[in-house]
Design a protein that fits this description.
179 residues, 43% strand, 2 domains, 2 helices, eight-stranded antiparallel β-barrel, Porin, alpha+beta
């Protein structure tokens, strides 16, 4: 007759062997999934950066970006405490036409595009303006997207060469169907 201690030892051994077999099966299935391409291991950010590195020298055709930005909107004057909130917007460039646009509060819109300049990985789109906000005359709107890191900055230039960043954030390439 077996002692309770012997039975407990055999039960524990069976549990450990079963756990090891299950672990090996899971690891084997995971390795096969990676080998078959069903499972992708690695940072999606690294893959996105690698893709951007390939695309950063592409200066033909059109590109659209979806951007997550923080808006720092001045209230009545530029010196007043700004209203700060997050938003999403779309930006686009046409390298062949040398134009660009973005959606936002002071948008360089698709209907009134700005002039595009490309300097390495940095895209800059500017448009002259002539309207008053915050008690000052705005003379230029500009936005930049750095294709190397995705950074987005929108700037207003006021009469007297005073500038103010209204939007800052990050953009990624916008893929449309079919994917």
């Amino acid at each position: 007759m077996k002692t309770p201690r012997a039975v407990a030892g055999q039960t524990m051994l069976a549990v450990l062997v079963s756990a090891a077999v299950v672990l090996l099966l899971v690891l084997g299935m995971g390795a096969f999934g990676i080998y078959a391409g069903w499972i992708h291991v690695g940072s999606s950010t690294a893959k996105a950066v690698a893709g951007k590195e390939r695309d950063k020298d592409k200066n033909t055709g059109e590109a659209k970006f979806i951007c997550e930005v923080t808006i720092s909107m001045p209230q009545r004057t530029l010196e007043a405490e700004p209203k700060v909130y997050n938003d999403m917007l779309i930006a686009g460039v046409d390298y062949d036409q040398k134009t660009g646009w973005y959606q936002g509060d002071f948008a360089i819109s698709e209907g009134h595009k700005g002039a595009l300049k490309v300097n390495g990985s940095k895209i800059a789109v500017t448009r002259p303006a002539m309207f008053e906000r915050f008690g000052m005359m705005i003379i230029q709107e500009e936005f930049t997207i750095d294709r190397a890191d995705g950074s987005f900055v929108q700037t207003l230039t006021f009469k007297g060469d005073k500038t103010r960043h209204i939007l800052k954030g990050f953009c990624g390439g916008l893929t449309t169907a079919p994917f």
